[in-house]
Amino acid sequence: VQLQAYGGGLVQAGDSLRLSCAASERTYIMGWFRQAPGKEREFVSAVTLTPKLTYYDDSVKGRFTISRDSASNTVYLQMNSLKPEDTAVYYCAARLGRIITSAMKRAGVYDYWGQGTEVTVSS
């Protein structure tokens, strides 16, 4: 499975961005992680195929919205009210099979990764 992520950029605090990630095949879970300079990769959000259940890290709840177009195998991350601490490289990830909810935030359970798209939020 190949993942192609795009949509990053340089914005000011309070602005919005939408990230997109297109997968070459259908997967059960598609999600987003991010990695800021000098920090570990962290979970941002994920969505399952059927039913479409969504998961968010507490740091982005209420500001980010994940959605999925199953027909095109594309996942979107709408990011509103961006903060400087959202600055990171954002990676799209996918997993073929089901997992328990508690494992959703673990990077190691995802089978495929995109190349990353950089988001910079200035204050």
What gross morphology would you assign? globular
Question: Oligomeric state of the chains?
Answer: single chain
Low-confidence stretches: none
- Characterize the biggest β-sheet: 7 strands, mixed
* Termini separation: 37 Å
- The helix fraction, in percent, is under 10%
Number of strands: 11
Structure description:
This protein has strands at residues 3-6, 9-12, 17-23, 29-35, 42-48, 54-56, 64-69, 74-79, 88-95, 112-113, 117-122. By secondary structure, the chain is mostly beta strands. The strands form 2 sheets. Strands 2, 4, 5, 6, 9, 10 and 11 form a 7-stranded mixed beta sheet that branches.
Outline:
The protein has strands spanning about 5, 10, 15-25, 30-35, 40-50, 55, 65-70, 75-80, 90-95, 110-115, 115-120. The chain is mostly beta strands and about 120 residues long.
Key traits:
123 residues; mainly beta; four-stranded antiparallel beta sheet; globular
What is this structure's SSE topology?
Blueprint: E1 3-6, E2 9-12, E3 17-23, E4 29-35, E5 42-48, E6 54-56, E7 64-69, E8 74-79, E9 88-95, E10 112-113, E11 117-122
Parallel strand pairs: 2-11
Antiparallel strand pairs: 1-3, 3-8, 4-5, 4-9, 5-6, 7-8, 9-10, 9-11
